[in-house]
Amino acid sequence: MSVPADAPVLTADAMRAAEAACVAAGTTLAELMERAGAAVADTAWRMAAGAPILILCGPGNNGGDGYVAARRLAERGAAVRVAALTDPATELARAARAAWTGAVEAIDAVPSGAPLIVDALFGVGLSRPIADDLAAVLRRLSGRVLAVDVPSGIDSDGGADWMPPLVADVTLALGALKPAHVLLPTARSCGRVLLAPIGISADRAMRTLPRAPSQVPGPAMHKFSRGMVLVFGGPMRGAAGLAAAAALRAGAGYVVLDGSESATLLAIIAESDEKFGERLGDPRVGAVVIGPGFPAGEELLFAVEAALDSGKPLVLDAAAIDAALPRLSETPRKAILTPHEGEFARAFPGAYGSKIDRAKAAATRTQAVVVYKGADTIIAAPDGRVAAAWPGSPWLATAGTGDVLAGACGAMLARGGDAFDAAVAAVGWHIARAAHIGPGLVADDLIRD
User: Fold this and answer.
1) Model confidence pLDDT, tens digit, residues 16-51
2) pLDDT at position 1, please?
3) Binding-site residues from annotation for K(+)
4) What is the mean pLDDT of the chain?
5) Backbone torsion region of residue 28, taken as left when φ is above 0, otherwise alpha when ψ lies between -120 and 50, otherwise beta
6) Alpha-carbon span 276 to 150, nearest angstrom
7) Residue 220 has pLDDT above 80, yes or no
8) 3-class secondary structure, 104
9) Residues that bind K(+), according to the entry (predicted)?
10) pTM for the complete prediction?
11) Is residue 170 within 8 Å of residue 191, measured between CB atoms?
12) Which amino acids are annotated as binding site, given as ranges?
């Protein structure tokens, strides 16, 4: 599983708009198809390594990309066959088919697969799952699969959970990634995702997670300028302790854990005499973390209300999200919410669409940055920016890692600057730590040296 770092992600509608803008700037659709087909041919050539190639072409422009790839592969001397679902249905696809001088077989007459199968059947914009009879034909084909743009039979926008009959080993995204490449369950069917630039200027509002930068303090930095984080501890002391330790490990210069007699790290200031209100008045506090290990109740509600009144940047996790919802959008503030699937459903019942759509709607409603956690974590800002963190680390699927993420968000937020950028940096740090540790990870490992 892999996707390019910091790559644009476009829905089907946004991709069509980007293509239209490209045409308006002087590039024809035929030129774009030629570039796409050339990129497919280059990838297929490397994957096949001299073995025969079977290209499956659909009636639309995805099929046209397949015909262009077939022509270019044949010109290189590759052993390439083409099988079509039906005659081309668009002008571009018909022109690409006419330029292919080889034979075209019927897909249902293909007796078997090939060492490499290029899936150029449907691509983006599919409005329904593949029919059962065609799916049965495709499932009997064997070989490695290179999907053109998206595996045929999935919703490229990630709003439906259709599964393709041909699971891709490699998917070559054309011009930009699509939501299906970074959202479950469809991402699992895309295999390794590569990006082919074809000259389209893609909107960067939605993108994949950038590579985690190294955070090296400058020579003039001190503990308070690196960020002071206040963590409000609940009855489950371990959860808040993880969050506080994670804030230090993620780069905060000073961390206070309120409501606990001790902390996981000696450098954390543990205060059991509940100086939370007093600490909220400290101008050096750059971020407040509330929610890890804290069930719903009057005590939590009091803490959330006090934090909201203080105007401090907030990281709200678990039950603290529900407690803050009535007031979050009242006054613009820096805030990051970190719900997992169950917490999101409880806080935002009735949300619909893809995970990206739901995260964006929640961010707009709350005017906060939403880190919608999971194997396909989505980070959404109220202004429409989105970062997709697929693939994450499977080793993070264990208790306490969400508390660690909340603390990391606090560290990044306490430095000042944009809350969305802070959330993106925290998620990147979280995944990078998990990747370094690997098998057997427990949440405590993330906060150890």
Assistant:
1) 999 999 999 999 999 999 999 999 999 999 999 999
2) 60
3) 62, 119, 152
4) 93
5) beta
6) 51
7) no
8) strand
9) 62, 119, 152
10) 0.94
11) yes
12) 61-65, 119, 123-129, 149, 152
Please, are residues 395 and 436 in contact by the beta-carbon 8 Å criterion? no
Listed in order, strand segments (DSSP E) in 222-376 are 228-232, 254-258, 269-271, 285-290, 314-316, 335-337, 369-372
Task: Report in angstroms the alpha-carbon separations of 427 from 20, 69, 164, 226, 377.
Answer: 34, 38, 30, 19, 8
Instruction: Please check whether residues 159 and 259 belong to one and the same domain.
Output: no
Q: Is residue 236's pLDDT more than 90?
A: no
**CATH number of the domain to which 264 belongs:** 3.40.1190.20
The boundaries of the domain holding residue 325 are 228-447
Give the C-alpha separation, 180 to 374, whole Å. Answer: 15
Using an 8 Å Cβ cutoff, are 189 and 390 in contact?
Answer: no
Q: What distance in Å separates the CA atoms of residue 98 and residue 118, rounded to the nearest whole number?
A: 19
DSSP per-residue letters across 296-312: SSHHHHHHHHHHHHHT-
> Do residues 127 and 239 both lie within one domain?
no
- φ, ψ (nearest 5 deg) of residue 258: -90, 140
Q: CB within 8 A of 429, min separation 6: which ones?
A: 212, 250, 408, 412
CA dihedral for 64, 68, 73, 77, sign (positive or negative): positive
Closest C-alpha to 254, from 284, 216, 283: 284
Domain annotation covers residue 5: no
pLDDT of the residue at 330: 82
Return the SS3 of 198: coil
Determine the Cα–Cα distance for residues 192 and 181; give it in Å rounded to an integer.
9
> How many Cβ atoms sit within 10 Å of the Cβ of residue 273?
9
Extract the annotated binding site for (6S)-NADPHX. Answer: 61-65, 123-129, 149
Pair (294, 353) in one structural domain: yes
Structure tokens at 43: 């990838």
Residue 87 lies in a domain: yes
Is the Cβ–Cβ distance between 232 and 303 less than 8 Å?
A: yes
